Amino acid sequence: MAQTLFEKVWRQHEVIAETADTPAVLYIDLHLIHEVTTPQAFQVLRERALPVRRPERTLATLDHSTPTRTEQVFGGVRVALAGAAHQVQELERNCASFGVELLAMASRERGIVHVIGPELGATQPGKTIVCGDSHTSTHGALGALAFGIGTTEVGHVLATQCLLQRKPRTLAIEVSGQLGEGVTAKDLILAIIGRIGIDGGTGHVIEYRGEAIGSLDMDGRMTVCNMSIEAGARAGMIAPDETTFSYLRGRPRAPQGAAWERALEAWRQLPSDPGARFDREVSLEAQAVEPMITYGTHPGMVIPITGSVPEHTEDPAFARALDYMGIEPGTALRDRPVNVVFLGSCTNSRLSDLRAAARVLRGRKLAPGVRMLVVPGSQQVKAAAEAEGLHRVFIEAGADWRESGCSMCIGMNGDTVARGEYCVSTSNRNFEGRQGAGARTLLASPLTAAAAAVRGRITDPRELLS
Amino acid sequence: MSEPIRQVRSRTLVMPASNIDTDQIIPARFLTTTTREGLGEHLFTDWRYAPDGSPRAEFVLNRVDPRAHRILVAGRNFGCGSSREHAPWALLDYGFRAVISTEIADIFRNNALKNGLLPVVVDEPTCRWLIDNPGVEISIDLERTQLTLAEGREVPFPIEPFARYCLLNGIDELGFLLSRARHIEAYERTRDGGG
Fold first, then answer.
1. What's CA A78's distance to the chain center, in Å?
2. Each residue of A318-327: pLDDT tens digit?
3. Where are the alpha helices (DSSP H) in B41-171?
4. How many CB atoms lie within 10 A of CB A14?
5. Is residue B2 part of a domain?
6. What residue ranges define each of the domains in chain A, with the CATH number in brackets?
7. I want to staple A290 with a disulfide (CB 3.0 to 4.6 A). Which of A158, A189, A239, A304 is the partner?
């Protein structure tokens, strides 16, 4: 029978298939861990005197609560927040005692967990990948089945390399045609979330397909899959193709030599078979997508940058959200002043994101009064950006150029937006208080963020791209 | 092993907002903890307290005795967003034992089940009735997977059968997975051998 990409990967990882009474025991190929969602899981292993079953299938990094100031990362200066410092020490101690590889604070391979997995070649088509972080869906861009789990489940994977899982349903999102100039993968996924809603994917694994998806580079595909969770989906996946294979070839943790050829042969079998059935299907046209920006307090409250905030919606939280944002119903967002611009996060902190923003910022300055933070997704992204001089573009424009980490997406390390300030952010969540108590977040693409930084007002980036 | 759970009987506390995300339940600045305890203090903190730290009188948690309300009724898509298990930990630490909504986000629901916080999904009319009647005493019977409303009306709710079995019997899922070690070893032999 014709199978979907998801079904193939799922079946290959069933240690025990599900029954009416019991969920499947699903094998996990790669377990990514970080400092915030693991201390209590390691504690359970200690209490029960259990080892990590497959330490070599486990990879740790530091990202969520780590500082981004160079002197705090590499110097003798104390980490800004004591609680965060303690968490970092806990992960160092746990990795040492359980034999797990840690990309430590000063490692050249450290970075945001969802940036480094693909970058190192550890993320591969057909793998099952989990992490105690909802944006684990990112890794599906390479044709992996990747999803976020809680800390109890982190403990299950550490101890058994397996999870108890019910098989989710499938949702195909077909995107025909090509995105226009100045319209990016971020705009596409925001448009998709606006269309299906922030719970439109609940209980489902999404497969993104169609011409527009196939035309995206790997960074763009990761941006799309990253925000699957913002539509409530369990995971997002894209069939591996030549773009995927050429991205992975030669990466340090990808298969090499004869093993590469064998892997390639297996990966070519993964795409959904012709005629494979999905539980639901949605389609949209890429040409119709414009640069998108959020106006409210969840990612589904989103409009084209040329448009206006609705007068009203069926969402009972609409009025409260607009009150929090200090935005009137029915008004345009264009030309509204902004205070802060954040370029970073597991959604948009890869080299092509930095290049896109630099394209707008080159030879320009930040508007007076605007603060901009540029936080590369990994130390490798940082080094690559510096090798081509992108850091000089940001610094000369007046932005802060930082070390890698989650930073102002989640604000756990002290990189926050002040109460009442407006921040155009390339991150993934505009929830109340996400970037700091009282902070007002407007999610957008790196191009739109850079345009806002230059003008000091919300700006259609296409005006600055000629 | 944990304490078996068969029934939760309590008055309801109602938060009608839809899409209550885990950043509201427990903001990220409280995630630097390395234990599971004590998070109830920070539950819904930015809705409970003004910037100067004073309680916001209009917020429901500041208007009722929390110890008398162990069932939270919320609008659609409760628990969306981050995978932080700190969200159910905070709700439990505060005193809640169940959440009722028309829809509960996937990761939150999984995390809740693993900690003995019952995620109860009901139809729209039932949820509407509960929202319109805050503070009513109801009971959630896990064994019969039924909700009994104040006037005796019974409403069935779906729950994953294995999670229900574990909760009713105080069985922890890690113990179950560990007991399947032989299957896992057999699987690893076939996989690791073939690359």
1. 28
2. 999 999 999 9
3. 45-48, 86-94, 106-113, 124-132, 161-169
4. 15
5. no
6. 5-165 (3.30.499.10), 169-239+264-287 (3.40.1060.10), 291-464 (3.30.499.10)
7. A304
A290 band by pLDDT with thresholds 50, 70 and 90: very high
Question: Residues A33-53: what's their mean pLDDT?
Answer: 97
Output the pTM of the full model. Answer: 0.97
Model ipTM value: 0.96
Q: Compute the average pLDDT of residues A361-380.
A: 98
B34 part of contact set with chain A, CB < 8 Å: yes
**Residue ranges of B 53-72 with Cβ closer than 8 A to chain A:** none
DSSP symbol at A167: P
The torsion angles phi and psi of A337, rounded to 5 degrees, stand at: -70, 150
Q: Residue A360: which residues within 8 A CB-CB, separation 6 or more?
A: A447, A450, A451, A454, A461, A464, A465
Contact B180 A162 (CB under 8 A): yes
> CB-hemisphere CA count at 13 Å for B93?
18
Confidence tier at A74 by pLDDT (50, 70, 90) = confident
Closest alpha carbon within chain B to A86: B32
Q: Does A159 contact B177 at a Cβ distance shorter than 8 Å?
A: yes
Collect all residues of chain A within an 8 Å Cβ-Cβ radius of residue B127: none
| Closest Cβ–Cβ partner in B27, B161, B188 for A20 | B161
Give the closest-approach CA distance of A134 to chain B in angstroms: 5
Residue B78: closest C-alpha in chain A: A199
CB atoms within 10 A of CB B128: 13
CB spacing of B83 vs A22 below 8 angstroms: no
Question: How many domains is chain B built from?
Answer: 1
Question: Does some domain include residue B51?
Answer: yes
Is the Cβ of B46 closer than 8 Å to some Cβ of chain A?
yes
- Whether the pLDDT of residue A130 is over 60: the answer is yes
Query: What does the pLDDT look like over A413-437, one tens digit per residue?
Result: 999 999 999 999 999 999 999 999 9
Q: Are A439 and A160 in contact (CB under 8 A)?
A: no
Question: Going along A365-466, which residue ranges are E strands?
Answer: 371-374, 400-401, 422-425, 440-443
CATH number, domain with residue B38:
3.20.19.10
Residue among A20, A155, A232 minimizing CB distance to B174: A155
Say whether B180 and A433 touch across the interface (CB within 8 A). no
Residue B109 lies in a domain: yes
Cα separation of B87 and B31, whole Å? 10
How far is residue B1's CA from residue A464's CA, in Å, rounded to a whole number?
Answer: 62
What separation in angstroms does the CA of B72 have from each of A199, A215, A278, B77, B78? 20, 46, 35, 13, 10
Residue of B nearest to A84 (CA): B32
H/E stretch holding A337 reads none
Q: B178 lies in a domain? A: yes
Q: What is the CA radius of gyration of chain A?
A: 21
Residue A286: phi and psi, rounded to 5, are -65, -35
Per-residue pLDDT at B191: 83
Q: Is residue A75 predicted with pLDDT exceeding 80?
A: no
Give the number of C-alpha atoms closer than 13 A to the C-alpha of residue B156, restricted to the C-beta side. 3
pLDDT on residue B195: 42
* Nearest C-alpha in B relative to A147: B107
